Amino acid sequence: MTIFAKIIAREIPADIVYETDTVLAFRDIQPQAPVHVLVIPKKPVVSLDHARPEDAALMGELMLACGEVARQEGLDVGGYRVVTNIGNKGGQSVYHLHFHVLGGRQMSWPPG
Ligand code: AMP
User: Fold this and answer.
1) Ligand 1 pocket mutation pick from 38, 40, 45, 101 by most atoms within 8 angstroms of CB
2) Percent of the chain beyond pLDDT 70?
3) Which end of the chain is least crowded, N or C, by CB within 10 Å?
4) What pLDDT, on the 0 to 100 scale, is given for residue 112?
5) DSSP assignment letter at 50
6) Catalytic, out of 36, 50, 96, 98
7) What does the alpha-carbon distance between residue 85 and residue 28 come to, in Å, rounded to a whole number?
């Protein structure tokens, strides 16, 4: 069971900012920007690489949730970043699909 599964099950606390039947969003415990929210499916999909055609609707819901969270946090005016890390070389540390919604500062490119 991943740490995010425990957050979904309310076994450990999180600062939840958005929730639907299928999606949960909460603040990252080690924020990398003034706003740093993680948007996750309640279904335990390991990473984007593990999403399958039957997950198409869920993937759409996650993308829409990222936008909803960003508007809720006031990031839509100036802009923001959504990123997902996949596997070891992608920098993934929690093996439950999550989208980082980052904003409130100027983002740089390329990412590290
Ligand atoms: P990644 O490295 O892309 O897998 O991102 C995992 C993210 O989860 C990191 O930014 C961590 O800071 C964050 N994280 C780990 N544990 C928790 C937790 N208990 N609550 C909130 N965020 C967490």
Assistant:
1) 38
2) 100
3) C
4) 84
5) G
6) 98
7) 14
Q: In Å, what is the CA distance from 6 to each residue of 12, 54, 62, 96?
A: 6, 24, 19, 11
- Cα-based angle 60, 52, 63 (whole degrees, multiple of 5): 15
Locus of tokens 């599964």? 5
- DSSP assignments along 59-99, one per residue: HHHHHHHHHHHHHHTT-TTT-EEEE---HHHHT--SSS--E
Q: CB of 16 within 8 A of CB of 22? A: no
pLDDT tens-digit profile of 25-45? 999 999 999 999 999 999 999
Active site residue 98: yes
